[in-house]
Design a protein that fits this description.
This protein is α/β, with parallel strands linked by helices and about 425 residues long. Helix content is about 35%, strand content about 15%. It folds into 2 domains: about 200 residues, 3-Layer(aba) Sandwich (Rossmann fold), CATH 3.40.50.300; about 200 residues, Rossmann fold, CATH 3.40.50.300. The strands form 2 sheets. Strands 3-4-2-5-6-1-7 form a 7-stranded parallel beta sheet, with helices on both faces. Strands 10-11-9-12-13-8-14 form a 7-stranded parallel beta sheet. It is globular, with a radius of gyration of 23 Å.
Length: about 425
C-alpha cells in the first residue's frame, strides 16, 4: 500500500516524502478512501496511529481541487480539538502536508490575546482549528461565521467529554450547514460518545484500527512497587541512566507536577512542568524546549499532555498512577511513536494498588514487576482500604500477603539500552 494507491495527489505525496512518510498507517489506509468519497466517518484510534494525517490529507486534497478564494471570517474547514497543544499540533500538520498547495489556516485557542486570531480570520482562512471555548467567544463577538463550513472534524471526542466540552460542541454544531462532511475521532467509544456521533454524523462508515483500550504492542511496560516517600529517589535513580534521554513524567495534580520538576532541577536534571495553570506562553516554551532537547524531562498532568505528539519520547514514567485506567493507555501511548519502540515505567505505592489492578483489568495484561533498591512489599501486597487513597484524616491498613512470582531484575540495574536509532 502506498499513498499513490490511496489516490493522494502528487503535491501532497511530495510533502509526505519530504517528511520521510512513504507508507500509510492502518488508520490512513482505511479512512482516506472513504473520506475522498465524501463519506462521514467515525475513526476509533489511539494517539500515535497517524489519525491526524488521515483527515488532514483528504481535506487538503479537496480544498486544492475546488480552489475557492478564502472568505473573510468564513472558513471552509472547522476542526475542533480539546486542548491548545493538540490544536497547535493539528495546525502544524496542515502546514506540513499542505506546504506545496495554496491555502490559508489559523489556530485559535484561549489563554492568549485574541487580537492576532481575529486579524487572521478577517483576512480569510480556509481551515480553522479551534478549541471550543475560544471559538464560542469569537462566534459571540461576530469574528467568525460557520455557514460556509464544508468539512467538520471533531478530534479526540472522548477527551472532549472528559473535559466537559460536550455542551460547547452541541452549541457549535447547529451553526454548521446541514450539508457537510463530518469526521469524528475518538480513542474509545463509550455510550455517551456513541450518542454524540449519532447526532453529528449521517450514515457514517466506522473505522477501527485496534481494539479499544489496548496498549501499543511495542511499548515495554514495568511497574515499580515503591512507598510514596521514596518516589523522588527512584525517579532520580532512573534518570542517572543516559538511555532515558527524552522522558515524559505524569503526575495526578498540578501541584505535584511543579514539585517534581523543581526537585529534578535542584538535582541538575533539566526539567519543566506543563499543566492548566501555566500560561500559554509558558506551555509553548516548555514544549519547544522539550522537543529541541534543551529540557530532558517534561512533567505533565493528563489534560495538559493530551495534545503532546512528539515522535522521539524514549520513556514515559507514571510518577502517580492515574485514577482512571483509560488514562494509562493515553499516557504510555506518548512513546513508541511513528513505528519506534518505547518504554513505560509506573510507580505504584500502596494507596495506588487498586489503580494498578484496574489498569491490568482494562488492558488484559499483567504488567511486569521490576525489582529495585526501593522496592516495597507493602505496596505490592496492599488490599482493602490500604490499596486505595485513604481519607486525609486517617490511613488504611490491613495488608495481606500472597505468593510472589519471579520478578525481572530492575531495568535500571541492567546494562542501559543504547539510544533508539543508534
Amino acid at each position: 500500500m502506498s499513498f499513490e494507491n490511496l489516490k493522494i495527489k502528487k503535491t501532497l505525496q511530495r510533502a509526505l516524502e519530504s517528511e520521510g512518510y512513504i507508507t500509510p498507517t492502518p488508520i490512513q489506509a482505511q479512512a482516506i478512501p472513504h473520506l475522498l468519497e465524501n463519506r462521514d466517518l467515525i475513526g476509533i484510534a489511539q494517539t500515535g496511529t497517524g489519525k491526524t494525517a488521515a483527515f488532514v490529507l483528504p481535506i487538503l486534497q479537496k480544498l486544492s481541487e475546488t480552489n475557492k478564494p478564502s472568505k473573510s471570517r468564513a472558513p471552509r474547514v472547522l476542526v475542533l480539538a480539546p486542548t491548545r497543544e493538540l490544536a497547535a499540533q493539528i495546525g502544524d500538520s496542515f502546514s506540513t502536508y499542505g506546504q506545496f498547495i495554496r491555502f490559508r489556516y489559523t489556530v485559535v485557542f484561549g489563554g492568549v490575546g485574541q487580537g492576532p486570531q481575529v486579524k487572521a480570520l478577517a483576512h480569510g482562512v480556509d481551515v480553522l482549528i479551534a478549541t471550543p471555548g475560544r471559538l464560542l467567544d469569537l462566534l459571540d463577538q461576530g469574528h467568525v461565521k460557520l455557514n460556509e463550513v464544508e468539512f467538520f472534524v471533531l478530534d479526540e471526542a472522548d477527551r472532549m467529554l472528559d473535559m466537559g466540552f460536550i455542551k460547547d460542541v452541541y452549541r457549535i454544531v447547529p451553526l454548521l450547514p446541514v450539508k457537510r462532511q463530518s469526521l469524528f475521532f475518538s480513542a474509545t467509544m463509550s455510550p455517551q460518545i456513541a450518542e454524540l456521533a449519532r447526532k453529528l454524523l449521517t450514515s457514517p462508515v466506522h473505522v477501527e484500527v485496534s481494539p479499544q483500550a489496548t496498549t501499543v504492542e511495542k511499548i515495554d511496560q514495568f511497574v515499580f512497587f515503591v512507598d510514596q516517600e521514596n518516589k523522588d529517589n527512584l525517579l532520580l535513580g532512573l534518570l542517572q541512566h543516559n538511555h532515558l534521554r527524552s522522558v515524559l513524567v505524569f503526575t495526578r495534580t498540578k501541584h505535584r507536577a511543579n514539585k517534581v520538576a523543581l526537585m529534578l532541577n535542584k538535582n541538575k536534571i533539566e526539567a519543566d512542568a506543563i499543566h492548566g495553570n501555566k500560561s500559554q506562553n509558558q506551555r509553548t516554551k516548555a514544549m519547544d524546549d522539550f522537543k529541541s532537547g534543551n529540557v530532558r524531562v517534561l512533567v505533565a498532568t493528563d489534560i495538559a499532555a493530551r495534545g503532546i505528539d512528539i515522535e522521539d519520547i524514549s520513556h514515559v514514567i507514571n510518577y502517580d498512577l492515574p485514577n482512571e485506567p483509560e488514562n494509562y493507555v493515553h499516557r504510555i501511548g506518548r512513546t513508541a511513536r511513528a513505528g519506534s519502540d518505547g518504554t513505560a515505567y509506573s510507580f505504584c505505592a500502596a494507596d495506588e494498588r487498586d489503580y494498578l489492578r484496574s489498569i491490568e483489568k482494562l488492558t488484559r495484561q499483567e504488567i511486569e514487576v521490576a525489582e529495585h533498591h526501593y522496592h516495597s512489599e507493602t505496596a505490592r501486597n496492599a488490599t482493602g482500604d490500604a490499596a486505595k487513597p485513604a481519607p486525609r484524616t486517617q490511613r488504611g491498613s490491613g495488608q495481606k500477603t500472597r505468593p510472589q512470582k519471579q520478578n525481572r531484575q530492575h531495568p535500571v540495574s541492567r546494562k542501559p539500552r543504547p539510544a533508539r536509532g543508534s
